[in-house]
């Protein structure tokens, strides 16, 4: 049964049709085409592939590619990366500076959470020699 359906589908694809373009005033045939569904399908597929290839070639081989979002030159990308690194280091130094200033404010106001060591430091005395 599946063989019959496949056979009829293939047969329908190969049936020949005639496309006639006629002059409406004189009914004279201007152009005649003999087509099948298979040839129309193949023709449309070829046109699609050619248009897609032409569009890709146009974007890749011309300066139009710079208008695509996310695409840029190597110089721009390396410059952007250097700027990101520089921004990160500046942000880090600002955080360190803010932390340092907060610690100084705490020490000056006496609000430190660090326990203070009030024991005296025992410094050994240097031995004097009688030479």
UniProtKB/TrEMBL annotation:
The chain crosses the membrane at residues 40-61. Keywords: Membrane, Transmembrane, Transmembrane helix. It comes from the Bacteria. This is Peptidase M23. The lineage of its organism: Bacteria, Pseudomonadati, Bacteroidota, Chitinophagia, Chitinophagales.
